[in-house]
Design a protein that fits this description.
The chain is of the alpha+beta class. The chain has 15 helices and ten strands.
Length: 490
């Protein structure tokens, strides 16, 4: 019995060794085959790498040639523009078909039919920058930008040396995805070569809605024209008009996207708008101002649409909102109208060489921006500004303003305000005192008398509340402020 067991064991061991030997041999054979295949793959890889390098060189040559041809095309287009002609944009049949489909969908969704065909133009980002530069040279001079920058500096929203002209060139060149020119009835989309991307298609939907607005409601009549005679002088009223027009376009665009785009397309669109260094680093007032017509405007238009559909929005073009207050508070539209306020000229009260940088209406939206610069409690700012009834401001600057630093910048700022009620004026006064304390690191006014306060800090500020009216006059010292107060006060 033991032998059998022993015999089996003996037999099994040699058999196992043989099986193991066969396995090792098979592995060796497989390893050799793998080594041979690896050597062959390396050889093929070397050939492929050489082909890739050759193709990369060819691609680089083609890319350089494309850039050279594009530069020639851009130069020819610029020559046409200089000669007063608009270059024709070549659109592929595929993109034209996509645009046709979007136009049809937008007309059905918006309830407006195109009266005439709209000229479509695809523009490169380089062409866009040239267009922005040309537009500014024709309609917005360096002197205009300087006056606007000094006005913003008087409100402490930028520093007096801020280069507004170049900043706006950079900002618009980065931010504009498309635009519509009412003067030419021409639609532009900033596009890359090839089929329209998701972002480019949604931009086209937005801009085509503007074309429908213009054909039915005459956007030039709302100040959207390069003809300065047609432009609106009241900045707050123009902002309200812009919010109506852009709010309409943004709401339509959102509804079109929900209907036409897949979730994947919408996510792709969101990723396509990442990376905006100019916008992200811009002073807060520019970020807020750029977004207001689209976001607050869309909320305003949506309130109209929910109440009466797109026909209610159409009716608003015949009786448009006239203040940012009406945009921020749709219930104030259309009956709560701004109280007109006038300011006398103050140049005669100031030393020789002082000049008017700007005079206009601040409005509730810009009043919020002014207060928020030094008050972080948004709710209190919004509550204080909500009682706005009307205003007029003026900014005068000294002869050295163009070269001034924050320490040497001298100005006189006047803001005359009307409020919906005396209580609203009191609420604003309370928050404005908080603003002065935060801005100038002061505890209380230097002196008070019969509702009048003098705050003596780096800037001397006169503040008065009388019933539902308030008056702010700020300047380098009391000698500059008091004559302005005397001229403005009733």
């Amino acid at each position: 019995m033991k032998q059998v067991v022993t015999g089996i064991l003996i037999v099994l061991i040699p058999a196992a060794l043989i099986a193991l030997g066969i396995g090792v041999y098979a592995l060796a054979q497989q390893n050799q085959a793998l080594q041979d295949e690896l050597a062959e793959s390396r050889a093929r890889s070397a050939d492929l790498q050489a082909q890739i390098e050759e193709r990369d060189e060819e691609a680089a040559r083609l890319h350089a040639r494309i850039e050279e041809l594009q530069a020639q095309i851009d130069a020819l287009k610029q020559q046409l523009r200089d000669a007063g002609q608009e270059p024709v944009s070549v659109i592929s049949p595929e993109n034209a078909a996509a645009m046709d489909a979007i136009e049809q969908a937008v007309q059905e969704m918006r309830g407006l039919t195109a009266i005439r065909p709209v000229t479509r133009t695809l523009m490169s980002s380089e062409e866009l920058r040239g267009y922005v530069v040309d537009l500014q040279e024709k309609n917005y001079s360096q002197a205009d930008a300087r006056s606007d920058a000094l006005t913003l500096a008087a409100f402490d929203l930028v520093e007096p040396g801020f280069d507004l002209y170049d900043f706006l060139t950079d900002l618009y060149s980065e931010q504009i995805a498309g635009f519509y020119d009412p003067d030419k009835d021409r639609l532009y989309v900033i596009a890359k070569p090839g089929d329209l991307s998701v972002l480019e298609r949604i931009t086209f939907a937005h801009e085509f809605d503007h074309a429908l607005q213009n054909q039915h409601f005459d956007l030039a009549g709302l100040g959207f024209s390069n003809d300065k005679a047609l432009q609106i002088e009241d900045a707050d009223r123009q902002l309200a008009y812009q919010a109506l027009v852009e709010g309409d376009g943004t709401l339509l665009m959102q509804q079109w996207a929900q209907d036409a785009l897949s979730l994947g397309d919408q996510l792709a669109m969101m990723s396509a708008v990442q990376g905006m260094p100019v916008f992200n680093s811009a002073p807060r007032v520019f970020r807020e101002s750029l977004m207001f017509p689209y976001l607050s405007g869309m909320a305003f238009v949506l309130s109209l649409q929910l109440g009466g559909g797109w026909p209610a929005v159409d009716a608003a073009f015949d009786d448009p909102p006239i203040s940012s207050e009406q945009i921020l508070h749709p219930f104030a539209y259309p009956d709560d109208r701004p109280i007109p306020i006038a300011l006398p000229p103050l140049t005669g009260t100031l030393p020789p060489g002082w000049r008017l940088a700007d005079e206009n209406t601040l409005g509730e939206f810009m009043l919020r921006q002014y207060l928020t610069e030094h008050i972080s409690r948004t709710a209190s700012v919004e509550r204080a500004a909500a009682g706005w009834g009307g205003d007029r401001y003026a900014v005068y600057v000294s002869p050295n303003a163009d070269t001034a630093t924050p320490d040497t910048f001298e100005y006189v700022l006047v803001i005359s305000q009307a409020w919906d009620s005396e209580r609203d004026a009191e609420e604003f006064a309370e928050v404005y005192r908080e603003y002065l304390r935060a801005r100038f690191d002061l505890d209380n006014p230097t002196r008070t008398q019969a509702g009048i306060e003098w705050w003596d800090g780096p800037v001397t500020t006169y503040f008065a509340q009388r019933g539902d009216r308030t008056l702010i006059v700020a300047g380098p010292d009391e000698a500059a402020v008091q004559p302005a107060v005397d001229a403005v006060s009733p």
